[in-house]
Write a structure and sequence with these properties.
The chain is α/β, with parallel strands linked by helices. 39% of the residues lie in helices and 19% in strands. It has helices at residues 2-25, 74-88, 104-114, 128-133, 160-176; strands at residues 39-40, 45-47, 53-55, 64-69, 93-98, 120-124, 140-144, 149-154. Strands 1-8-7-4-5-6 form a six-stranded mixed beta sheet.
Length: 186
């Protein structure tokens, strides 16, 4: 009798094991895409890392990629060389330094050491801009079209594949706005 009870107890455990193994070994679903429902970007006017102000209105009439990042963020560090490459391919990127307790000097040092992909860098020490734009974490990027609408969102760090999708989307927005692509740096 005890043996049959033990065997009956193994059935749910075995079923759970089979389902778990199937979930772990099945092919991965497609990676997070660079998509988003179109929505208005929040108007922002924040202090810049190097002084002055960074305003969304300064980019009216041309697309811009807004990248939310922080020096304390490990995925941001993985993404950084990809952003440098994207900027080298003509993508205009505005960085937003999000809730970074290490301070502005740490950000400047990182950008000096690793390269600066950002045309401008706004500061968001309270996280208000991040909340307004709709982030769930860092890094996240938002492609804003020439009319100030968020047309694409990437809720993770860029790798080569997602960067290629972003570059294509940026160039399509650039063409729609009638802007010529920036020449690649020499």
């Amino acid at each position: 009798m005890k043996r049959s009870v033990a065997l009956l107890a193994l059935i749910p455990f075995s079923l759970l094991l089979v389902v778990s193994l199937w979930l772990l070994t099945r092919p991965n679903p497609e990676p997070a895409s660079f998509t988003s429902p179109t929505r208005p970007a929040p108007s922002f006017d924040v202090a810049g890392l190097d002084g002055g102000q960074v305003k969304l209105s300064d980019f009216k009439g041309r697309p811009v990629l807004v990248n939310i990042w922080a020096t304390w963020c490990a995925p941001c560090k993985l993404e950084h060389p990809v952003l440098v490459d994207m900027a080298g391919k003509g993508v205009e990127i505005v960085g937003v330094l999000y809730k970074d307790p290490t301070g502005e000097d740490a950000a400047r040092e990182l950008l000096k050491r690793e390269g600066n992909p950002f045309a401008h860098i706004g500061l968001d020490p309270s996280g208000d801009l991040g909340i307004a734009i709709g982030i769930g974490g860092v890094p996240e990027s938002f492609l804003i079209d020439a009319d100030g609408m968020i047309v694409k969102t990437h809720r993770s760090y860029f790798d080569d594949t997602s960067a290629a999708a972003c570059i294509a989307a940026y160039r399509a927005e650039l063409a729609k706005s009638g802007q010529a692509p920036k020449p690649a740096p020499a």
